[in-house]
Design a protein that fits this description.
Strand content: under 5%
Number of strands: 0
Largest sheet: none
Radius of gyration: 30 Å
Helix content: over 70%
Number of helices: 15
Order of helices and strands: HHHHHHHHHHHHHHH
Number of domains: 1
């Protein structure tokens, strides 16, 4: 075997020298790694904070959409006004519904308000189908946001739309002189009940959107769900005038409890004074729909 050349020995000595560039490069590579940077805020927070922050971010995104779509609010306000001023005026002289204790238009105002909010919530699932079709849903599910944050945020977006529409309807009621109770407890409590019910129906809509892939089919199923819920409730007439079989259906209809809570707080009749029970039922319905929609939401991309 031949002896190593003088050039190779010099190169080896240079590499072993403490101050040589090769030694410095090796030391920087084999030394301790740089300390990791701070964790992203979305991951560093606790689970409840992450859910709340994600829900607020999603709600703000929906609010920005609403700011650029003022016409949608006004067009959606036409239907409740038709129910209130055409149907309500036509049935105003029928005292069998209200026993002459309150004006019929005031009696159906909470039901019309709840129906308009439910209409917004039920068709909110169309946005989920559209987001899946354009690929936005896949990018959203890849973010650090939890599924519950996404569902809560979209439900909050539906609540914002329903709240704006309810405020417009209350302004119309005040201008028309329709007799409802203008108390702070009644108005604030009614708006809280309305948003809770809207969030529950929005979660139900997202649950439906996870199972239905076509927008046309979703619209048909949405109408099939919304109209029976509306007519099988106490939105337009009290439970006492219903036949027995329809009264049983209305008793298990969550919209009935939402309407009764709204009517008790805004008009003072219809809920038998048990507003806390209406809040419990609507809140339980919201919790069930939120859990189901959170579990089904990832399946929306399949």
């Amino acid at each position: 075997m031949s002896a190593p050349s003088a050039g190779s020995q010099a190169a080896s000595a240079e590499q072993r020298a403490p101050g040589s560039p090769a030694t410095q490069q090796t030391g920087s590579t084999s030394g301790s790694l740089a300390p990791p940077g701070p964790r992203p805020r979305a991951i560093a927070m606790g689970a409840p904070s992450r859910i709340a922050a994600g829900a607020v971010a999603m709600a703000q995104a929906e609010l920005r959409k609403l700011r650029h779509d003022h016409i949608d609010i006004f067009t959606r306000s036409v239907q409740p006004l038709l129910w209130l001023f055409i149907f309500g005026t036509a049935m105003e002289h029928n005292r069998s519904f209200t026993q002459g204790t309150v004006e019929y238009r005031a009696y159906i105002a909470p039901g019309v308000m709840a129906q308009a909010a439910m209409f917004i919530a039920i068709f909110f699932g169309l946005a989920v189908i559209w987001e899946r079709d354009v690929g936005q849903l896949q990018r959203l599910l890849a973010t650090p946001l939890s599924r519950s944050s996404i569902v809560l945020g979209k439900a909050a977006g539906a609540c914002v739309r329903a709240l704006v529409q309810a405020l417009l309807l209350l302004a119309v009621l005040a201008l028309a002189g329709i007799g409802i109770r203008w108390t702070l407890y009644g108005v604030v409590g009614a708006l809280a009940m309305l948003m809770l019910g809207t969030a529950a129906f929005a979660c139900m809509s997202m649950l439906l959107a996870a199972a239905v892939k076509e927008r046309e089919r979703f619209m048909g199923i949405g109408q099939l769900i919304m109209m029976p819920l509306f007519f099988a409730s106490s939105a337009l007439y009290p439970l006492a005038v219903m036949p027995h079989w329809l009264r049983i259906i209305a008793r298990v209809n969550p919209l009935t409890y939402e309407v009764q809570g709204l009517r008790q707080m805004l008009v003072g009749v219809g809920g038998a004074g048990v507003v806390w029970l209406d809040f419990i039922v609507v809140g339980a319905f919201f919790a069930v729909m939120l859990g189901a929609a959170t579990r089904a939401y990832p399946k929306a991309i399949l």
